[in-house]
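Hypothesis: this fold can be encoded by more than one sequence.
Test: take the structure tokens below, design a sequence, compare later.
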């Protein structure tokens, strides 16, 4: 952990009165948990805080206190701009475009390009929410129950319930402390790790029916038609990629998700020792060694072959 950045963040947070805090588009649990965890803690200390992101808050996170305060737009009357869990400005949607300058960038992605004045990037952290939970009291703010719930949710979702290869015993101690401060582990685990809507599981069925395998690579795709047939409202894969990681001899799993706007979202997952963030970066995306993603423009029937070929080459080179 970069202690100089952490000290600079403490000073900046203490001094600021009006803060803009933003996270990435297609937000996952860590994005929402980090945004609410830091945002609510600063608010409770009397700061004026605007929490924002250029997307809807996914329904599964709306049970969290404060989620109704998250905005899609913003005014420029803030004195400190913070970006959370976001490796590069292009993932901020409109917030990445309007020539906005970022004061603070807190993240755990290995592909983070350090676009802010103060960058606190800890690639060993399992979640951005872990970095916030570890530091927030040193920065001078309290962890209330809603803050503890948000931060534990971020940690739980990015570790898929404490089971990713980057898990450390420290994370379990931090989670225990968040529980002591009021976080409801079983409820968060149910709502945000394993429960899915009927429509999501029906859509999995379409994806699973097309499952393919070649040596250590398994993949499938979800089309716009699958989504509408199942009545699934989101644009994502409903975490189907995590099902594929259950396949015992898969070294890399890939899901292609057709998007309504003519794009294709790709999700990669890898076992320990294989780094898929490099393949994702080749396609303009990014992420972590074990979990990465990218968004490509084109037809799914053509793109998937190109992506699989590169992924397969990468797997063979790494062995
Ligand atoms: P997922 O496959 O769950 O969408 O994403 C896995 C990881 O890759 C996450 O940590 C996420 O932040 C990162 N990621 C996903 N999509 C993109 C993308 O389009 N660009 C970048 N830079 N990272 C991505
Ligand atoms: Mn994260």
């Amino acid at each position: 952990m970069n202690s100089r950045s952490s000290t600079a963040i403490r000073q900046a947070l203490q001094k600021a009165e009006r803060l803009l805090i933003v996270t990435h588009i297609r937000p996952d649990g860590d994005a929402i948990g980090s945004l609410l965890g830091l945002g609510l803690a600063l608010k409770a200390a009397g700061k004026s805080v605007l929490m924002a992101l250029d997307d809807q808050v996914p329904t599964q996170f709306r049970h969290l206190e404060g989620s109704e305060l998250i905005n899609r737009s913003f005014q420029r009357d803030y004195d400190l701009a913070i970006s959370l869990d976001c490796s590069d400005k292009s993932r901020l949607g409109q917030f990445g475009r309007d020539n906005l300058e970022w004061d603070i960038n807190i993240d755990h992605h290995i592909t983070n390009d350090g676009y802010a004045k103060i960058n606190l990037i800890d690639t060993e952290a399992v979640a951005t929410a872990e970095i916030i939970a570890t530091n927030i009291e040193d920065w001078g703010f309290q962890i209330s129950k809603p803050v503890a719930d948000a931060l534990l949710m971020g940690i739980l979702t990015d570790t898929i319930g404490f089971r990713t290869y980057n898990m450390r015993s420290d994370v379990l101690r931090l989670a225990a402390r968040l529980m002591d401060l009021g976080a409801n582990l079983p409820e968060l685990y149910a709502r945000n790790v394993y429960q899915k809507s009927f429509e999501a599981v029906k859509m999995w069925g379409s994806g699973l029916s097309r499952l393919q395998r070649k040596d250590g690579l398994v993949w499938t795709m979800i089309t716009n038609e699958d989504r509408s047939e199942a009545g699934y409202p989101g644009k994502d894969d409903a975490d189907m990629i995590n099902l594929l990681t259950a396949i015992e001899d898969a070294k890399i799993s890939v899901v292609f998700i057709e998007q309504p706007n003519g794009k294709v979202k790709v999700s990669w997952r890898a076992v320990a020792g294989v780094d898929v963030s490099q393949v994702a970066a080749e396609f303009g995306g990014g992420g972590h060694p074990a979990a990465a993603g990218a968004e490509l423009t084109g037809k799914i029937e053509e793109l998937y072959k190109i992506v699989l070929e590169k992924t397969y080459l990468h797997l063979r080179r790494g062995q």
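The chain has a mean pLDDT of 96. The pocket of manganese (II) ion (ligand 2) is lined by residues 30, 85, 108, 127-128, 158 (CB under 6 Å).
Hypothesis status: open.
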